Amino acid sequence: MAFPSPVSHRQTVTALLLLTFTTGLIDAVSVLVLGHVFVANMTGNVIFLGFWFVPHSGVDLTAAIVAFAGFITGTIVGGRLSRHLDSDVRRWLTTALGLEVAILGVLAILAGAGVLDYRDNTKLFLIAGLAVAFGSQNAAARQFGIQELSTTVLTSTIVGIGFDSRLAGGSGEREKLRYGVVLTMLAGAGVGATLTRFTVAPIIGLAALIVAVSVGIFRFGSGGPE
What we know:
By secondary structure, this protein is mainly α. It is built from eight helices and no strands.
């Protein structure tokens, strides 16, 4: 069931694009620093888990399992929140995304303090926490019925670009939005990959800040068609 957004369509798209940007940002960290594992895009992890039966595949299967379990946990938490708070959509989104901000903030602090190290097994706690955060985010985002803006998966969006294009005999409807989603995640990944050359914990803190902006939009934004 898709819920109506408490804010205008334009503000909703803006908030969801910000969340999409954080997906690229954090998956860059997880893939490049935490051991070739995705914490927001589970398609990649399912493929990695398929390598279980291939010796010396070079993939950290433990990390993939932890990320997958964490993501599922996050979606369960997100589902519980949506069912208990769906009578007040603003409150629900503030709570769900606020939880994500809190998780990212704590992880940034622990990573920055060296409590969670990127080079030993404590990184599994970092992977699990990030996956929980993005599982919850995805559970919230999917409730708006904007197929192109799940915030973590691009496959259906890219299919839509081709299928509905004028080259395929379509109308090109929603083309700008779809390209915007792809470019937003691409930008997030590019920024994240660049920053990982110098730092890690502040990237997680930046993601928390960006999600907090989305929380503010959903909490204080105005309603209306635009």
